[in-house]
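Hi support team,

I'm filing this because I wasn't sure whether my run with zinc ion finished correctly. The job status page said complete, but I'd like someone to confirm that the output block is well-formed before I use it downstream. Pasting the exact inputs I used:
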Amino acid sequence: MTRERGEAQKGYGPQSFSIKYNNAATNDPCAVCGEGTDLRVGPELFLRKDSWEPVCYRCGRERAPVLAACLQAFRDEYEPRFGACPECGRPGEHMGIHKTNWFVCSVHEVCWFAGSGLFSAWLKETEEDWELRARTMYGYREVEPLHHPEAIVAARRRDEELQHRKLMADLGPRPRETEDPADIYS
Ligand SMILES: [Zn+2]
Ligand SMILES: [Zn+2]
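And here is everything the job wrote out:
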């Protein structure tokens, strides 16, 4: 509790912080509370002034909830814990087979192995569950998932462009505007 009061006296408010791009993972102490920060490469919270003093997630949530929520939304979207499909950058769908944890993108028919015994759900599952999933994954290409936000953003942009071009191709050529409207009925 003394620490809480000490922090309050420092007077850090939402405007004391900003999100900056961190280019090296570090465990430097938090500028507010002194605890380790465990920062990853990518957007992270720092003091706003011209420095690279990091701020931990707990202090961020307490003192700059909007910035902390932005950062969290970014992470949920672009740093999926178990990686993303290399074709479209979307997080995979979990497919547990016995203890093993696979993730798949059913649109691109790819799969990747994420580890073994990551969740306890398998204890309540049956052989039939696993067989059904194994059948779904049959023929899927095994790939290396994307983990880095920049790679994920790039993959999504590529995929969106591809979708857009496909849609345009499906629509066919645009009708010429100079055509006499009467032609339509002839
Ligand atoms: Zn802190
Ligand atoms: Zn995909």
